[in-house]
């Protein structure tokens, strides 16, 4: 980070910032980092009274003094007006991450696209918000095709299941258009598959994908094909860095490494020989070789933790929580 950015960062530490989707895997860790750095945080949740979903946030150091949770829903127009009012910055992480969608439009695309514009409109209205950091996904730069391998014959009963990538791509495109039309300072972080300790009491989809792998079922990780991986702490730090750096602009890919699923399995299995991690996977789709260039974030000072640390931290956490 430059001296100027470091100075700007320090002055931002008293900022009031809003985090949408506060109960989520990524948002919870981000809130932990924001509170640790001295920020005052207003998190949005759909049900502030739900102890099961919010308890871990109230247990964070600094939460009692500097955390507030307010109700907001991506699908309700104007729902974020109050939440972002008076905030200096907004971190928009909320989105619907659905395992098997029955109606992709209402379950994934609407929360992503309408929801993002809903949040951005409130930011614009607020007049206080100076920068918005949105969490997109590496799926919005890379066609993330979760399709059966050539070994499985396709017939008319099969549908392409790319809705998550479509939702993230459309939401980000709309966000850039809105930011350009309304002169809103928008930065977008595009993490690859996030691995690490999970603060919420209930595991979200990707956390469960990793847990299943560690318990012997590699089908979910295998289905993704070649994939980028990044530590949860690096994802949160990336959001903070781009918020604090005055010269930050545009999109920031956030991925430490990219691996074939069997490569990942062999690496973790060799490190944890007592876990039943499969080293041969079936039905891995032939995703073309690619790499994700995260050098923009590295230039801001982010040093990515290696995949070994992601899994060491994640496994230690699962064991501590008696999930493994
Ligand atoms: N996890 C990954 O590997 C990964 C990788 C790349 C990008 N990302 C991106 O990171 C962000 C967070 O993902 P995550 O893994 O942390 O997901 P998550 O744990 O499922 O959290 C998603 C959050 O969105 C909220 N949400 C869902 N529908 C909503 C609605 N209609 N209105 C308001 N809030 C709603 C949920 O709140 P409730 O508590 O109210 O349900 C939840 O807190 C997403 O934008 C995702 O696309 C994640």
TrEMBL record:
Keywords: Oxidoreductase. InterPro entries: Epimerase_deHydtase, NAD(P)-bd_dom_sf, NAD(P)_dehydrat-like. Residues 17-248 form the NAD-dependent epimerase/dehydratase domain. It holds the Pfam family Epimerase. This is NAD-dependent epimerase/dehydratase domain-containing protein.
């Amino acid at each position: 980070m430059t001296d100027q950015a470091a100075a700007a960062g320090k002055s931002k530490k008293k900022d009031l910032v809003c985090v949408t989707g506060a109960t989520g895997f990524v948002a919870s860790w981000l809130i932990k980092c924001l509170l640790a750095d001295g920020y005052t945080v207003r998190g949005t949740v759909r049900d502030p009274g739900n102890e099961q979903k919010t308890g871990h946030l109230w247990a964070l150091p600094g939460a009692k003094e500097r955390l507030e949770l307010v109700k907001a829903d991506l699908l309700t127009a104007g729902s974020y007006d109050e939440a972002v009012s008076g905030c200096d910055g907004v971190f928009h992480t909320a989105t619907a991450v659905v395992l098997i969608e029955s109606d992709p439009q209402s379950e994934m695309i609407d929360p992503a696209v309408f929801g993002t514009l809903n949040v951005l409109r409130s930011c614009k209205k607020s007049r206080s918000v100076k920068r918005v950091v949105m969490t997109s996904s590496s799926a919005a730069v890379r066609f993330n095709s979760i399709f059966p391998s050539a070994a499985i014959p396709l017939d008319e009963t099969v549908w392409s299941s790319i809705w998550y990538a479509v939702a993230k791509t459309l939401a980000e495109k709309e966000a850039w258009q809105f930011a350009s039309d309304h002169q809103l300072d928008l930065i977008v972080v595009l993490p690859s598959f996030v691995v690490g300790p999970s603060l919420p009491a209930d595991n979200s989809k990707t956390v469960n994908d990793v847990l299943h792998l560690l318990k012997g079922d590699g089908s979910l990780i295998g289905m993704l094909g070649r994939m980028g991986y990044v530590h949860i702490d690096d994802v949160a730090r990336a959001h903070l860095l781009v918020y604090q750096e005055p010269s930050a602009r545009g999109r920031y890919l956030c991925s430490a490494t990219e691996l074939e699923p069997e490569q990942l399995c062999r690496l973790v299995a060799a490190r944890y020989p007592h876990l039943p991690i499969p080293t041969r996977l079936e039905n891995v789709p032939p995703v073309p070789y690619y790499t994700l260039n995260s050098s923009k974030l590295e230039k801001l000072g982010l040093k990515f933790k290696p995949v070994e640390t992601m899994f060491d931290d994640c496994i230690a956490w699962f064991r501590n929580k008696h999930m493994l």
